Amino acid sequence: MKLYYSAGSCSSSCHISLEEAGLKYETVEIDFDNANDPNLATTQKLNKLGTLPVMITDEGKQLDQNLSIHVYIADKAPGKNLLPPQGSFERVEALNWLSFVAADFHKAIGGMFGLAAYQAEPETQAKVRKNMMVRANEVLDYLNTRLQGRSYVLGEQFSVIDSYAFIVASWTKYLDLSLAAYPNIVSYLGRVASRPAVAKVLKDEGLLD
Prior knowledge:
Layout: E1 2-5, H1 11-21, E2 26-29, H2 39-46, E3 54-56, E4 62-63, H3 66-76, H4 89-110, H5 115-118, H6 122-146, H7 160-170, H8 183-193, H9 196-204
Parallel strand pairs: 1-2
Antiparallel strand pairs: 1-3, 3-4
């Protein structure tokens, strides 16, 4: 299978899940900051929205949404327990959390990256940011509460949810968004980053400080 990704973006979470799954895969990095990157045209051709991730599966099919890619990866490596078994309530609960990360957490945190594109006037940016911070802190508090007494989102078992939540939570350091009020998330980030598969991806993508 082949994953098209951009370093440090949400697509990096799919890279982590692939490495955690121990599956054979290849990656193609897309540099959106380099207008001369020849893979930019490939990305646009594969996905008319021009967004990542894009995965070409072992069956030659295409997936281009984080949630579906994570589920696909988990199901390709059932022995890794990256999601609970199909048909169980635990599976549905896990998908509920994966959906939270994709629909609520990602949007609330990631949306703050685009402030400059929405409004160039600093005072207006500050007002919009203040409003967005309210929602960002709501979802951070929600995740922080979930992690109380847990190593990972589902308990002691790492899952594809953690691949995704880890990347989104790590964006806070680039957004001047303090995690001081969320000690469970702070310890969680360190715990996930120390996993060999995660550390390898971070190194491969040039994301280590």
